[in-house]
Amino acid sequence: MPRRRPASLAAAREAKFDQAGAILEALEFGPRQRNNTARYVLLALAAVTPQVSWSAATAPLMGITPMMDWIAANYGVKYAPNTRETVRDEAVKHFVAAGMLVRNADDPSRPTNSGRTVYCLEPHALELLRKYGTEEWPSALTAYLQSRTAIVAELQRERSLHRVEARLPSGELVSLSPGGQNPLIKRILEDFCPIWVRSGVVLYIGDAENKWLHFDRDYLARLGVAIDSAEKIPDVVVHDVPRNWLVLVEAVTSAGPVDSKRRSELKQLFANSSAGLVFVTAFANREDLRTFVTQISWETEVWIADDPTHVIHFDGERYFAPYDDAMPENLRALA
């Protein structure tokens, strides 16, 4: 009997794999969306092992890495650690878009890019999966498909309740994703800009869900700045029009102050700018500053949201102004 067990396990694994594919097809996912990874992710999120019936499906909270570990332990398929994005792109994002998964149900304010992001089956989807293979499946499937648009709309509505609304100096409203540094970015837009960049035009705002949420590419191009990737752009970029400065602000809650390395990176990124560069690190409070104070680069500024009318100047001969190494030659004589 022990010798036959692996064959039996292999058959059970194959059966569940095929069933997961049939479920995804019934849910109208296309061939590319019901790929092998998607099938295994569905099994993981329902906690359906080869020996467990769909009627016993549950909805555990799982991050991408725990999903990969679960699949390896229960179905013998191992994903390399560097394939996390593949799992997310080939399965998870499609399930979220279709309303099958809820992201961060335990903490909706958690930012999307948090390392602690988790997913779980949406309750209606879980109820449907539990009826797979029973006489109730056809009618339950029909009812679910008819209600899916409403389910997606409700999930989006709930998500929107946690979004961060911020008003730009122009009066325009932008909607930032929940949590992370976005509450601080709101303070930068609504408190820092009106005081320190009074005639400023906000050209870029970084958001965890959408790096290009607010990006005036044409305006930056007129200043000589061409940016192809959002990865290295500071969190907020503001053009001080009267003084022709680009104020580059990093919002720091857990990492990323303007240290000497970051200052050099920003100088390189904006090397062709016809505007002078001012480097600012923003913190929510003094406690956060205390954590990073030894990393702050000289010839930069620090702004604390709890004391919005003050900035801390890190040495140098100029107070809240570009230095020669971050200023076009034609502006240096005017400094």
From TrEMBL:
Keywords: Endonuclease, Hydrolase, Nuclease. It holds the Pfam family BsuBI_PstI_RE. Residues 166-317 form the BsuBI/PstI restriction endonuclease domain. One of its GO terms (biological process) is DNA restriction-modification system. Coiled coil: none annotated. InterPro entries: BsuBI/PstI_C_sf, BsuBI/PstI_N, BsuBI/PstI_N_sf, Restrct_endonuc_II_BsuBI_C. GO terms for molecular function: DNA binding; magnesium ion binding; type II site-specific deoxyribonuclease activity. Signal peptide: none annotated. It comes from the Bacteria. Transmembrane segments: none annotated. The keyword Nuclease applies. This is Restriction endonuclease. It comes from Schlesneria paludicola.
